[in-house]
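Hey team,

Filing this mostly as a record. A colleague (T.K.) asked me to run one chain through the structure pipeline before their review meeting, and I want the input and output archived in the tracker in case anyone asks later how it was produced. No errors, nothing strange. Just documentation.

Input sequence:
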Amino acid sequence: MKNIDMNKVTNFFNHYHTKKVSNPNLYVASSNDAVNVILPNNLLEFANAAAGHSGFGAGARARGIRRMCSDAKAEIASIFATVDTLADFLLSSECNADEYVETVRIRHLGMKSTKKSKLYVVTDERPADKNFAELNAKYNINKLVQFFGEELLLQARKNLTINEFELRFGLAA
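Output structure:
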């Protein structure tokens, strides 16, 4: 079970009650059959995949916690009744947004992910030649040319993927 910082929960609770004055249907789906609580950055570890994501590629990030219910307005009132009920709601989340967002990033960037136990190894299978500006911005290519030679780098650029290029020249972390 995850630990929760009650100071963060209290800040979120207070933020909600301040915000709902001007937006009484905050976090209530328009069909009133779901809640979609958008979490502050310091509580995103509790986000679930059902809430979706914002941004794309490297900028994709988890959003919050989404739950289906019969009366969303009543559900939100129950969730934000006290700091403790809000903490219980956060702790009841599947907390599976990180894995979901990683798949979004991978799909957007055209990358592959291979699962190794609980760690994911992400490989970028895009052609190095078509994405060379990105490699050039990320690494000191001029220094590589000096060390390996222009012809070898040119051939690698033409024939390798970004992942292979990084591995070939010792650039991968």
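Quick notes for T.K.: Helices lie at 6-19, 72-79, 83-91, 97-109, 132-138, 141-148, 150-159, 162-168. The longest strand covers residues 111-116.
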